[in-house]
């Protein structure tokens, strides 16, 4: 059939403000086809294609027709180099010494790459929604999953913490060294209690694990296993925001972040859409003699994206913390318990009256 000579599958589309119909061309000459040069079946296919594109308004492969108009936020030069980090005078010495090992000497901090990042939209949001309203800073708990001397998940956790700290967050990094193996008896261990209290204190988490044997490490999973879904009426993770990242020794993979995302859902947390996966992590940081800092790359840029996004989502969601934790099933459970308690009380009172004990 002559229609076989028509390159129907290779449509050329013009993307612009006006809808452009598909232009069909001959597979050898490349010249546009008209309905007079093809078979009846070919004419039918051409007409059907054009009619379909006109009717649904989606005459482009990427469906730009359906895109929502977006606003490009302008960079505010007033915030270039600005930092809302907690100063040494404002900070609690015990907290600063125990939970902020990522802080740099003051002389180095001003020239650091984190200080040079353009973060004006997030900084303005923090200023208007938290600092000017004199609200508590965002409280972020950072967990990592390796105890090696040169742990790349710890180094990445420190870089993430520096970004969050500049954005005005109260950042606390938990050291998993000394955390016992999960069992049924050591829940009173000081490291377990410390971890649980930090989770209750937090508004959001950052989880960073190495990928080992195709998944997250036991060191990291053990930390989550020690955090209960509920302790009485308190849920240590419910409603918190979560950012996730992983480091790999080999090529880029997403096994660990996929597992972290599942864990976050199970712990009733809101995991941000973005995520960071750093391949060949041993090539992504400077030597220890040069501070073990992350080198410039798209991987570093993605980490910045994730931390900026975490701050924005946490600011948006924190005022509605109780609302997001409200569930029909739990309300129903409380109602049934209340009805049962009232019924038991009525029964006991009736029994007492009948026996004449009152």
Automatic annotation (TrEMBL):
One of its GO terms (molecular function) is oxidoreductase activity, acting on NAD(P)H, quinone or similar compound as acceptor. InterPro entries: Arsenate-R_ArsH (IPR014063), Flavoprotein-like_sf (IPR029039), FMN_Rdtase-like_dom (IPR005025). It holds the Pfam family FMN_red. Its cofactor is FMN. Gene3D superfamilies: 3.40.50.360. Residues 348-358 have a biased composition (Low complexity). The keyword Oxidoreductase applies. Residues 139-282 form the NADPH-dependent FMN reductase-like domain. Residues 336-358 are annotated as: Disordered. It comes from the Eukaryota. Keywords: Flavoprotein, FMN, NADP, Nucleotide-binding, Oxidoreductase. The keyword Oxidoreductase applies. PANTHER family: ARSENIC RESISTANCE PROTEIN ARSH (AFU_ORTHOLOGUE AFUA_5G15030). Homotetramer. NCBIfam families: resist_ArsH. This is Arsenic resistance protein. The lineage of its organism: Eukaryota, Fungi, Dikarya, Ascomycota, Pezizomycotina.
């Amino acid at each position: 059939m002559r229609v076989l000579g028509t390159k129907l599958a290779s449509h050329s589309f013009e993307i612009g403000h006006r809808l452009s119909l598909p232009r069909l061309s001959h597979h050898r000459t490349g010249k546009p086809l008209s309905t007079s040069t093809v078979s009846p079946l070919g004419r039918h296919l051409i007409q059907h294609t054009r009619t379909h594109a006109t009717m649904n308004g989606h005459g482009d492969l990427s469906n730009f027709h359906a895109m929502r108009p977006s606003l490009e936020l302008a960079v505010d030069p007033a915030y270039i180099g600005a930092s809302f980090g907690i100063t040494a005078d404002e900070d609690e010495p015990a907290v600063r010494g125990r939970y902020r090992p990522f802080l740099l000497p003051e002389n180095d901090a001003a020239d650091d790459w984190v200080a040079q990042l353009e973060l004006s939209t997030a900084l303005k949001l923090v200023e208007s929604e938290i600092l000017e309203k004199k609200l508590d800073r965002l409280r972020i708990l950072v967990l990592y999953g390796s105890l090696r001397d040169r742990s790349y998940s710890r180094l990445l956790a420190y870089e993430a913490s520096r970004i969050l700290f500049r954005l005005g967050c109260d950042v606390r990094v938990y050291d998993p060294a000394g955390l016992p193996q999960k069992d049924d008896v050591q829940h009173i261990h000081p490291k377990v209690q410390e971890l649980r209290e930090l989770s209750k204190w937090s508004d959001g988490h950052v989880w960073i694990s190495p990928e080992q044997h195709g998944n997250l490490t036991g060191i990291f999973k053990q930390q989550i296993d020690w955090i209960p879904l509920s302790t009485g009426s308190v849920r240590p993770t419910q409603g918190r925001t979560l950012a996730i990242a992983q480091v790999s020794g080999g090529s880029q993979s997403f096994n660990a972040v996929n597992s972290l995302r599942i864990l976050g859902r199970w712990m009733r947390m809101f995991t941000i859409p973005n995520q960071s996966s750093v391949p060949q992590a041993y090539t992504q940081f400077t030597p220890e003699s040069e501070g073990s800092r992350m080198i410039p790359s798209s991987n570093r840029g993605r980490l910045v994206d994730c931390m900026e996004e975490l701050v924005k989502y946490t600011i948006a969601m924190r005022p509605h913390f109780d609302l997001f934790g409200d569930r029909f099933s739990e309300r129903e459970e409380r109602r049934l318990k209340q009805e049962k308690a009232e019924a038991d009380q009525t029964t006991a009172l009736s029994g007492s009256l009948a026996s004449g004990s009152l």
